[in-house]
């Protein structure tokens, strides 16, 4: 399977716990994006990387959220001290970057439930 | 005002009809436009991209872009029940992240 891969697919955690999600992009894609989607809404941008550099973070991304892409390959998104409002689908997407906007492809998502 | 706006629907069409989905955007600097299909509980799947004014056809799908009116649409010909899903419009400006609309739910009735 050469698509974007996300793990885990589902995560249930207690409020206050930390969680970490992983995304493996399509291998030749150097851009990687994280989005969050709640029921009935479109995906909301969180952050993106070009290779290992984190180029932009949304104002929505609180200090409890951190993302890394240490070697420009896979990425992790960590949420510290989870809150019920963090319950959502976390989506990762990747795209090649050729100096112009190109198509982004999404992984299956990680559904987070905070209880 | 949201940056990308879509009618949330549901848009209901009979099988075999043409479904017309619309999207408006606020940033005149937007350069690239995409339509994603999302089935319930699944992630978005890219179905069309369009970069210049006019029409772009791919099978039963036609994307239309009018930058002067800041409007992009998706036509689905010969709609099938399997086309029932939420359709997300996404806009890219300056080559950075995609901004999504809230999606339009399409229901195709047999």
Structure description:
The complex is a heterodimer of chains A (115) and B (110). Chain A has strands at 5-7, 10-13, 19-24, 31-37, 44-50, 53-57, 65-68, 75-79, 88-95, 105-106, 110-114. With 115 residues, chain A is mainly beta. The mean pLDDT of chain A is 93. Chain B is mostly beta strands and 110 residues long. Helices cover 0% and strands 57% of the residues of chain B. Chain B has strands at residues 4-5, 11-14, 19-25, 30-38, 45-50, 54-58, 61-66, 71-76, 85-93, 98-100, 104-109. The radius of gyration of chain B is 13 Å and the shape is globular. The mean pLDDT of chain B is 94. The A-B interface holds A 33, 35, 40-45, 48, 55-56, 89, 91, 93, 97, 99-109 and B 4, 6, 8, 31-32, 34, 36, 42-46, 49, 51, 88, 90, 92, 95-103.
In short:
The complex is a heterodimer of chains A (115) and B (110). Chain A is mainly beta.
The greatest interface here is: A-B, 26 and 26 residues
**Mean pLDDT figure of chain B:** 94
Shape verdict of chain B: globular
Range of strand content of chain A: over 45%
**Residue runs with pLDDT of under 50 for 5 or more positions of chain A:** none
